[in-house]
Design brief:
- This protein has 476 residues and is of the alpha/beta class.
- The protein folds into 2 domains: 2-141, Leucine Aminopeptidase, subunit E, domain 1, CATH 3.40.220.10; 157-473, Aminopeptidase, CATH 3.40.630.10.
- The protein is built from 14 helices and 20 strands.
- Strands 7, 8, 9, 10, 11, 14, 15, 16 and 18 form a 9-stranded mixed beta sheet that branches. Strands 1-6-5-2-4-3 form a 6-stranded mixed beta sheet, with helices on both faces. It has a 3-stranded mixed beta sheet with strand order 12-13-17.
């Protein structure tokens, strides 16, 4: 979506006016009769009014008072979603935004919601032109906005859209190798370092978790390393982001049922997509922070010489795992990546993964399950970022007693716990491969939606990009 600027309202534009209960409407293009109609609507609890001025439309929205600024921002995003629907319904290509509110944060949130709501994934339609949204440009007032702040927003949303599109791609296109190629193209375009390891190199590194999951596939795995290190990075040691890159998950021999399960599993690389999208955002916005991304990638199939429940796998760090469920594959490939991260002596490692159905059962799609060994202030900073962007963090209890749940009779650990605390025992498994401050984010409930949820859309949401960008921008 293009953004342009003007010094004063142009009456031949379609206009969106955003107000609140303090607004007088006197600074808008509305005449007294139109203003009176709007105020009458407000008295009837009607918060959206449509004014026709010749062939042009004026859409007026009233934002309610909120108890907190976080709630206010989220309300603005959701109202903007409704505005996007109306603009596209009326086939409006260019819309001027005028704010009669004081809060800059609310203005930015409204623009953010409008932009996020306009995302589409049309690559595989034959009638793309008929389905494409009409809204292509928004016009902002120079006096109401800081252009650098809007550019930062545009760059961040571009990262979200990259993540969404990667998640929405089917396996028929996005194999593990193709994912590496997509990252390579982005790296050259945006400006970060990138390399990926092929199966031979992965084998030499003894990444048994990644190799074992890949045994049932005819497509090779990859291990991807992204790095952004600006000259004046504020952190002496890097922050490492690890993303689960299972480009399709059948469950392996522990086969998933198809309806509302396997049919959604092109999204099982949403953690990887979030890392890629975050890199796009931080590099375009030139954040002064040293970040490394690690993405182990493969599909998980029951074919060929697929590993079977009862097999014992030797991992990258030398520990052994009794594999009892091949559908608990994400932790197997993440474990190798977390072990590999040790060589960077990181100040913090954050992994993102669509890891467990237990996380969905625990909190649904309303937040991200989190746990780990990071310092309290690091987790608090991440929670604050979660509130800022409404990708909220629900920290799970992480008692030592949960370690016993993954105790094996014949190996160092098993890859599943019992019938309870599934998202926590998955985290406890991953902890065995960390020797640094670490946070695990289970995004299973938020990464892919089967029905539209306002500005988050339907299908891939790009969750994690805005969260991590906000966290890294404010990292202390």
């Amino acid at each position: 979506m293009k953004v342009s600027y003007i010094n004063k309202t142009i009456l031949n534009n379609d206009i969106v006016i955003v107000c609140n209960e303090k607004s007088t409407l006197k600074s808008t293009v509305l005449d007294e009769k139109e203003s009176k109609q709007i105020r009458e609507d407000w008295s009837k609890k009607i918060k959206f009014s449509l004014i026709s001025k010749g062939s042009k439309k004026i859409l007026v929205y009233k934002l309610d008072e909120s108890k907190t600024i976080d709630q206010g921002r989220e309300l603005a995003r959701r109202v903007a979603f409704g505005s996007n629907k109306e603009l596209n319904r009326y086939k409006i290509a260019k819309a001027e935004l005028f704010f009669e509110i004081e809060s800059n944060e609310m203005k930015i949130a409204f623009i953010e919601g409008l932009m996020l709501s306009n995302y589409q994934f049309l690559k595989y339609f034959s009638d793309t032109a008929d389905k494409r949204n009409s809204l292509a440009e928004i016009v902002l007032h120079n006096t109401q906005h800081n252009k650098s702040e809007i550019t930062e927003l545009e760059n961040t949303i571009s990262g979200v859209f990259t993540a969404r599109s990667l998640v929405n791609e089917p396996l028929s296109y996005l194999t593990a190798l193709q994912l590496s190629k997509e990252i390579e193209v982005l790296a050259k375009k945006v400006g970060f370092s990138f390399q990926y390891f092929d199966k031979k190199k992965i084998t030499s590194l003894k990444m048994g978790g990644l190799l074992s999951v890949n045994l049932g596939s005819i497509d090779p795995p990859t291990f991807n390393i992204l790095e952004y290190k600006p000259a004046k990075a504020k952190n002496k040691q890097p922050i490492v982001l690890v993303g689960k890159g299972v480009v399709y998950d059948t469950g392996g021999l522990s086969l998933k049922p198809t309806p509302n399960s396997m049919d959604l599993m092109k999204s099982d690389m949403a953690g990887a997509a979030a890392v890629v999208g975050t890199f796009e955002a931080i590099v375009k916005n030139k954040l002064p922070i040293h970040v490394i991304g690690l993405i182990p990638a493969t599909d998980n199939r029951p074919g060929g010489n697929a590993y079977v429940p009862g097999d014992v796998i030797k991992m990258h760090n030398g520990m052994t795992v009794e594999m009892l469920n091949s559908d608990a594959e994400g932790r197997m490939i993440l474990a190798d990546a977390l072990s590999y991260a040790q060589q960077y002596k990181p100040t913090l490692v954050i992994d993102l993964a669509t890891l467990t159905g237990a996380a969905v059962a625990a909190i649904g799609k309303e937040g991200i399950v989190a746990m780990g060994t990071a310092k309290a202030d690091q987790m608090d900073q991440l929670k604050a970022s979660g509130s800022n962007v409404h990708e909220r963090i629900a920290e799970m209890p992480y008692y030592d007693e949960y370690d016993s749940y993954i105790k094996s009779d014949i190996a160092d650990m098993k890859n599943v716990g019992g019938p309870t605390a599934g998202c926590i025992t998955a985290g406890k498994f991953l902890e065995r491969y960390t020797k640094y401050d670490w946070i695990h984010l289970d995004i299973a409930g938020t990464a892919f939606l089967t029905s539209e949820d306002t500005y988050k859309g339907k299908n891939g949401t790009g969750v994690g990009v805005r969260l991590l960008y906000n966290f890294l921008k404010n990292y202390k």
